[in-house]
Amino acid sequence: MNPKEAKQESERLYDQAFYEDDPKKQITILSKAIKLHPENADAYFERGNIYEDLKELDKALEDYDKAILLNPKAADVYCNRGSLYHDLKEFDQALEDFNKAILLNPKDPDNYYNRGNLHEDLKELDKALEDYNKAILLNPEDPHNYCNRGNIYQDLKQFDKALEDFDKAILLDPKDPDNYCNRGNIYKDLKQFDKALENFNKAISLEPKDPDFYNNRGVLYCNIKQFDKALEDFSKLILLSPKDADAYNNRGNTYNDLKQFDKALEDFNKAILLSPNDAEIYTNRGNVYSNLKQLDKALEDYNKAILLDTKTSKAYNNRGHLLKEQGEYIAALKDAEKSLELDPQDAYTYSTLAEIYGEQGETELFYKNIEKAFELNCPVWELLEDKAYNEYKNTPRFKKLLAKYQKEI
Question: What mean pLDDT comes out for the span 104-131?
Fold first, then answer.
């Protein structure tokens, strides 16, 4: 077979590969095409795509490199290699490839979409927003662009704009369950719980085997104190994803809310077994031990959480509350102040501060912090069994605050 015939046969095999459903057979056909004509850049590119789908990433990267070497102006190859680098968390190389793809083909919306994904993962939200805007400008009929931009607006707390984007995504693709789930999360953040539930139900009806949807609905049920329904959803989540530590963690929290502490401990122990370096799980197990008055074990878990993640505000707050219970007010105050440094909007930390000051007879500091807790939507009326409130809860001043904020919340 002369070179011309070999090239023609290579191109024929390349076309044939698209009619084959089995990816391994596709690879065999494309490999024959490459052997016949080693300069067939398209064959390397397509084989690289298949290797990437099969999670054989080293082989995919090798093929993309070869395709670029043979055709350095192929924007789509740079784009796909950039996505592969993104998956490999080689972010600088990913950005370089996306920039090159845009330089070669500035009118392809996928290039901006993929670069936007990278900026989003890097928490460069303004840059991500700019890329999604450009992708929408180039292709206003792609629902994925609106969905991703909606996620950015949600992160930026621009909920009205996020809702507009998710509405648009649903209009363009009413059968994509992710759009309903995302819109449900917006409604949950806006405390429009009926609408949130409606959207989560729709997502589950469209895709009843997606564990994330049950997780989101379960969290919503916890927010509205329907713990039995939350348990059902988290149990379904565990059935679908039995190695998901977050699933056991969430169900453990629900059992804790229901005061089923033995079951809560069982779930947190399982979660720790699956994810032994997750600070949040130790914090939550510490809460159960605290409820069981096993304060040494609670303290051990809070210490472990802080050791794993020095920026976990809840662990500092909860340890501070425990130390307050033990009368160690200086250490408790230090932890509460650290919690606020990490999260200045944590309502429960203000209630902890109020309790620390209240137990020491610092009346004005008690009221200063408890009012701040109320303002940030802390349900203080659920905390009144704590001895710190004994001196205050029956006073006119406290009753006035309670009446005002309990009605608002």
Answer: 97
Q: How far apart are the first and last CA of the chain?
A: 81
- Going from the C-alpha of 201 to that of each of 210, 298, 398, the distances in angstroms are 12, 37, 41
User: Does some domain include residue 165?
Assistant: no
> Helices 245-257 and 227-240: crossing angle, nearest 10°?
160
Host domain of residue 383: 339-409
Give the Cα separation of 378 and 371 in Å (integer).
Answer: 10
Kindly state the tokens that stand for 329: 């007010």
287 assigned to some structural domain: no
304 falls within a domain: no
What letter represents residue 134's amino acid? K
The whole-angstrom separation of Cα 231 and Cα 7 is: 62
Residue 136 lies in a domain: no
Mean pLDDT, range 230-252, rounded to an integer: 97
d(C-alpha 21, C-alpha 279), whole Å: 45
Region 209-232: mean pLDDT is 96
Contacts 24+ apart (CB under 8 A), 16-24: 17/46, 23/50, 23/53, 23/54
- Indicate the number of domains in the chain: 1
pLDDT of residue 407: 64
